[in-house]
Design a protein that fits this description.
The protein is of the alpha+beta class. The chain has 1 helix and 5 strands. Strands 1, 2, 3, 4 and 5 form a 5-stranded mixed sheet that branches. Strand 4 and strand 5 form a beta hairpin. It is rod-shaped and about 100 Å long. The model has no long low-confidence stretch (mean pLDDT 85).
């Protein structure tokens, strides 16, 4: 009778150890997945900051000829993320308001006339970064910024 009880006790301990190892592996898998997702998200945030700076340079370098800047996009070199950039508002002093063509469809309802010459030329940039490649976790970062190109 005693040897049969020891056999049951040994089987119970083996099952308990197997269960604990399964739980430990499950937590390790969750933690590794969490670290990988955080890495992808941080990479997307860094790309968003770079895309914002590139957008400022793009807006500054475009010859407008009285027109507003049309929406544009950037892709990162490894083709992981895409940034879609659009200018929501242009803040222009009333002295420079005649430089913008009101019939331009990219300017409709976007030009804001301001009275302070210090704020002349500011733009509100809307930036959306999303992942392209299906190999990474889907990421979407939306950033809105007031900049002076």
């Amino acid at each position: 009778m005693r040897s049969g009880f020891n056999l049951l006790m040994a089987i119970f301990i083996l099952l308990l150890l197997a269960g604990l190892s399964v739980v430990t592996l499950q937590y390790a898998k969750i933690k590794a997945h969490h670290y990988a997702d955080n890495y992808v998200k941080e990479q997307a945030k860094l790309f968003a900051q770079s895309a914002l700076e590139a957008a400022i340079l793009h807006i500054h370098g475009v010859k407008r000829d009285g027109k507003c800047v049309a929406p544009f996009s950037f892709k990162d070199p490894k083709n992981r993320y895409e940034a879609n950039v659009s200018v929501l508002y242009y803040y222009i002093s009333d002295k420079n308001a005649s430089d913008i063509d009101p019939s331009d469809p990219t300017c409709q309802n976007r030009v804001r006339i301001i009275q302070t010459p210090e704020s002349n030329g500011y733009v509100v940039i809307d930036l959306v970064v999303h992942s392209i490649n299906g190999n990474t976790a889907p990421v979407r970062i939306h950033k809105r910024s007031l900049q002076r190109p």
